[in-house]
Design a protein that fits this description.
single chain, about 260 residues, alpha/beta
């Protein structure tokens, strides 16, 4: 058993899977979680690094799912939390079922906040710990044809800045909050969000291993926000100065159903 312990959520594939590998490579025992059975094969792969890996299947959109995850720590001190679990939802808001958009909100916001609050309280009590949230540059612009998802990421981006300021103001300088804000990344996100026929869904995307490495490096140094990739940095900068109507139109061009059919 290692003397360091990390939790990585949403770790069955994509950025979360790569973050779990990085944690294991750095000598952390790892508890990984996802809401699909694939998490077990992910755990088997991560064991190659010679640390203790435990994988569990849980729905982190619910308090019960988060409690199941926390119980699986068996009381171990959590040194690093990568709160990466989340998912998207494409197409027009009026075409989405309430159960679908609620699950996005409950996963990306409600379950994430519940988990972060539980773990952060323990970190603050002992005066040390690192939390990384996976936000998104999507939080910087109105999400035309992806309205609920972008709204949840706007919340996460804002929340990370606010909690970091609270911790700093209260003298908890050894408890850090990092917000990883990727752009379009080559994961299962777009297929799962039913966005395979969109311009952004068919376009070339960032490497999840590179995105995860950027975030992990930033978190290890105690850094705050990080936008991964120079193109995403430019897009984020533009979103901060352009009118909302312009960025909403830009997002429509990327996310409108059928916009990728000619790509």
């Amino acid at each position: 058993m290692a003397d360091k312990f990390a939790i990585v959520t949403g770790a069955s594939t994509g950025i979360g899977f790569e973050l779990a590998h990085l944690a294991a490579q750095d000598g952390y025992d790892v508890l990984i979680v996802s809401n699909e059975p694939l998490i077990n094969s992910a755990g088997a792969d991560i064991q190659q690094h010679g640390v203790e890996v435990r994988s569990i299947e849980a729905d982190l959109s619910t308090f019960d799912g988060v409690d199941k995850l926390l119980a699986a720590t068996n009381g171990r001190q959590v040194d690093v939390l990568c709160a990466n679990a989340g998912h998207g939802l494409g197409h027009g808001f009026l075409d989405q079922s309430p159960s679908d958009w609620r699950h996005v909100i409950d996963t990306n916001i409600v379950g994430t906040l519940y988990l972060v609050q539980k773990v952060l309280k323990q970190m603050v009590a002992r005066g040390e710990g690192k939390v990384m949230l996976t936000g998104s540059i999507a939080g910087f612009m109105p999400g035309t044809y992806q309205a609920v998802y972008n709204g949840t990421k706007a919340f996460v981006d804002s929340f990370a800045d606010a909690i970091r300021a609270e911790l700093e103001n209260e003298g908890h300088e050894h408890v850090t909050i990092t917000n990883l804000m990727p752009g379009a990344t080559d994961t299962e996100f777009f297929d799962r969000a039913n966005m395979g026929d969109t311009s952004v869904g068919t376009a070339k995307k960032d490497d999840p291993a590179k995105v995860a490495k950027d975030g992990w490096t930033q978190m290890k140094s105690g850094g705050g926000d990080i936008v991964s990739g120079w193109k995403n940095k430019l897009q984020a900068a533009a979103a901060h100065v352009l009118p909302a109507g312009v960025t909403a139109a830009m997002h429509r061009n990327m996310a409108e159903p059928g916009s990728g059919n000619d790509a």
